[in-house]
Amino acid sequence: MFKALLITQNDGQYRAALTDIDEAQLPEGDVLVQVTHSTLNYKDALAITGLSPVVRRFPMVAGIDLAGTVLESASDAFQPGDAVLLNGWGIGETHWGGLAEKARVKSEWLLPLPHNISAAQAMAVGTAGYTAALAVLAVQDHGITPAHGPVLVTGANGGVGSFATALLAKLGYHVIASTGRPSEQDYLRTLGARDIIDRAELGVPGKPLMKERWAAAVDSVGSHTLANVCASTYTHGVVAACGLAQGMDFPATVAPFILRGIALQGIDSVTCPMPQRRRAWQLLAEHTDPALLARISSAEIPLADALEYAGKLLKGEIRGRVVVKI
């Protein structure tokens, strides 16, 4: 038996609770992991509270991230005792996830834990930091260097935005951070932001083309913000889109794409191919230090507190990352 945060839906009643589960109930997979750490993402909070249809199969163990140690393996890629991590691939949505003491998963979903990052640190990074790293790679792969000009990060106070700001600054880029919380300017500057703008500048309907202000951007907001970000990007720049905090709509025109030749690169962290995942975690391992994680992480909680913190997260009462020590 092991403990897990189990989500059920019976006769229209949606419920999440810390539950004892028999190992025999675990879904199919060729690797059994002793989970030591997970994290609480916005998507996890939506799944736990049922405020959004994140969970697509019931019953479901929540948690889209996990880190731990291999207990059993039928794969040549991993051996008992190996330290591993997992982001995405549908865990916590269609396959039992990481907010549990044990998880059985497919070996092709797992990555070896980088040697210079602990399991707790990997979960302080989590899907948020991994997604930010993918977005930063998109900027680099487009050929945008610090010499090309500033890079905008929207939703800079969030998990993805915080890591994107810090990584870009560490790589030498001039970072412009967009936030709706003026009180957090000092926090953003400690992450490396050089300039800070109010999200209100970007969050309302704008013109098809506007003054060019940045060579690239990492956007976790979507909607009018993404449209205005594109309209203000330098000729032949790139915008990495990885979130929809403002909305799923994209009220834009083709003008920035055909008159300035900008590129809009979507960032998919869930089913991202393994080679790109390895690149992202290599980038994080090289440029993420413990002091940075301490600034971005807000709390380490036990599994039993995940229900309470899910509500706090949705209410905007938590800044940064929440690590769950299993």
Main traits of this protein?
16 strands; 28% strand; 9 helices; Rossmann fold; single chain; 326 residues; 2 domains; alpha/beta; seven-stranded mixed sheet; six-stranded parallel sheet; Quinone Oxidoreductase, Chain A, domain 1
Descriptive report:
With 326 residues, this protein is of the alpha/beta class. It folds into two domains: 149 residues, Quinone Oxidoreductase, Chain A, domain 1 (Alpha-Beta Complex), CATH 3.90.180.10; 140 residues, Rossmann fold, CATH 3.40.50.720. The chain is 29% helix and 28% strand. The strands form three sheets. Strands 3, 5, 6, 7, 8, 15 and 16 form a seven-stranded mixed sheet that branches. Helix 2 packs across helix 7. The radius of gyration is 20 Å and the shape is globular. It starts with a strand and ends with a strand.
